[in-house]
Design goal:
Helix content: 10-25%
Strand content: 25-35%
Protein name: Chymotrypsin-2
CATH topology of one domain: Thrombin, subunit H
Subcellular location: Secreted
Pfam families: Trypsin
Order of helices and strands: HEEEEHEEEEEEHEEEEH
CATH architecture of one domain: Beta Barrel
Family: Belongs to the peptidase S1 family.
Number of strands: 14
Organism: Drosophila lebanonensis
CATH class of one domain: Mainly Beta
Strand order of the largest sheet: 9-10-11-14-13-12
Radius of gyration: 17 Å
CATH superfamily of one domain: Trypsin-like serine proteases
Shape: globular
């Protein structure tokens, strides 16, 4: 009986890790962090990973940025033990044939959720090096904040296909448009939940991030990682989705991987 209770608790923790709740700008509502996107070919996003609990349930997205490190949202892994999560890659089907990696260390940003919704980013150190191939590659992280209002970006993930649905079986992609910080703050009525470490991008009404997309990669036309999905108003209601801005966290990422020696 105790073992059964333990399994239930772990499954519930894994489910909650993928949810980030946020009020609508004018009415109450809920979020997490693709809805309205298109299935992409295997290898089209070779950096994409699925963060899963030990039972193989998809919790969040993530992205390969180094031979032994994956980047995701801290809200996906906060409170979880490294033995209870795994990183799945080299696939477009999160529950299909894939390579699985165990976790050596979980490194959330030291100021995660201080205040709430801020610094939602974490590094995952894998137990072994990534085995690169045609469908498994790392991605360059953006070091400069040079995005322009209206610039086209691409989000990939296995998030729910509708607000009450299940995680998509196949990896999907959606085109989003970068929203300048001032415009995004106005949309969210100057909410304190937005700061310089955030980036906003919006799709058409009926298209956007949804539950299970948290931690997933936002990529620019140069193939650089510019954002990690954090929060928003689910799913596809026309409000900007909010991401951790990679250029803002670039030095933290590099120094953490290099053992505090920034280059």
């Amino acid at each position: 009986m105790l073992n059964q209770i333990g399994v239930v608790i772990l499954l519930l923790v894994g489910a909650q890790a993928a949810l980030r709740h946020h009020a609508l700008p004018t009415t109450s509502g809920a979020n997490s962090r693709i809805i309205g996107g298109e299935v992409i070919a295997k290898g089209a996003a070779p950096y994409q990973v699925s963060m899963q609990n030990i039972y193989g349930n998809h919790m969040c997205g993530g992205v390969i940025i180094h031979d032994q490190y994956v980047l995701t949202a801290a809200s996906c892994v906060a409170g979880l033990r490294k033995a209870n999560i795994k990183v799945v890659m080299s696939t477009n089907e999160w529950a299909g044939e894939a390579y699985q990696y165990m976790v050596d260390d979980i490194i959330p940003h030291c100021n995660f959720d201080k205040p709430l919704y801020h610094n939602d980013i974490a590094l995952i150190k894998l137990s072994t090096l990534v085995a690169y191939d045609d469908v498994t590659q790392n991605i360059t992280i953006a070091s400069l904040d040079d995005l322009q209002d209206g610039e086209k970006l691409k989000l990939t993930g296995w998030g729910n296909e509708d607000v009450n649905g299940n995680a998509a079986w196949e990896l999907k992609s959606i085109d989003l448009t970068y929203v300048a910080p001032e415009k995004c703050r106005n949309t969210y009525q100057n909410s304190e939940d937005l700061d310089i470490g955030h980036l906003c991008a919006v799709g058409s009404v009926g298209a956007g991030a949804c539950y299970g997309d948290t931690g997933g990669p936002l990529v620019d036309s140069q193939g650089r990682l510019v954002g990690i999905a954090n929060w928003g108003v689910p799913c596809g209601y026309g409000f900007p989705d909010v991401f951790a801005r990679i250029s803002y966290y670039h030095d933290w990422i590099i120094s953490t991987i290099n053992g505090c020696s920034i280059y």
